[in-house]
Amino acid sequence: MTASVVMTAENRAHIRELPARLGNRFIDVGIAEQTLIGMAAGLALRGRIPVAHALAAFLTMRSFEFIRTDIGIGGLPAKLVGFVPGLLSDGNGPTHQALEDVALMRGIPGMQVFCPADLDDLLIGLPVILADDDPWYIRYTDRPAVLSHNLNSFPGVRKRSWTATTSASSSPACSFARRSRPRGCSTTPACRCGC
């Protein structure tokens, strides 16, 4: 498996333990979201799986052109994690609220979008996303689960092992991407294998 590199734009609150665990595979670029995306694209071109983490409002809006051009159009396997989405950043006001993030990311060719309901949902979907070659935007929330998740009902999951639910040639990521795409959406292909 290709090594992943976790990157952040000086937003370590939710990932405090990662620098010590990842060592030189953790990069903090400072408050520079465009640089974050440019570096993620470069790392992806060199065979790494970059996981770029920043406030959703700044990750998606300040660096939109970089995401669209370098990652989306380029079809790079970067994973973008926008946290404090929607109105969750109430203390910082409207400049920190990400209301448009999903719409912006859905408009990028090839970009897959995952909006987990809670932390448990994120942990179930993350292995498929990391294994997929497509670019992904994850609208991260660390809210505790209100309901228990039935792993058998989650796209591509059967008892904690990822299995394709369509055909033997389809990857688990294909199944997940196809089911997570809105009905009738043609802007984002389900997968590259044609399933």
Strand coverage percent: 15-25%
- First and last CA, distance: 23 Å
The neighbouring-strand order within the major sheet is 2-1-3-4-6-5
Low-confidence stretches: 157-195
Tally of contiguous helical segments: 7
Structural account:
The structure is a single chain. A hairpin with a 2-residue loop joins strand 7 and strand 8. Helix content is 31%, strand content 16%. The strands form 2 sheets. A 6-stranded parallel β-sheet has the order 2-1-3-4-6-5, with helices on both faces. The protein has a two-stranded antiparallel sheet with strand order 7-8. The chain is built from 7 helices and 8 strands; from the N terminus they run βαβαβααβαβαβββα. Helix 2 packs parallel to helix 4. It starts with a strand and ends in a 15-residue tail after the last helix. It has helices at 18-22, 33-45, 56-61, 64-72, 101-106, 119-131, 172-180; strands at residues 4-8, 26-28, 49-55, 79-83, 112-114, 136-140, 157-158, 161-162. With 195 residues, the chain is of the alpha/beta class. The protein has one domain: 3-Layer(aba) Sandwich (Rossmann fold).
Topology at a glance:
Blueprint lengths: L3 E5 L9 H5 L3 E3 L4 H13 L3 E7 H6 L2 H9 L6 E5 L17 H6 L5 E3 L4 H13 L4 E5 L16 E2 L2 E2 L9 H9 L15
Parallel strand pairs: 1-2, 1-3, 3-4, 4-6, 5-6
Antiparallel strand pairs: 7-8
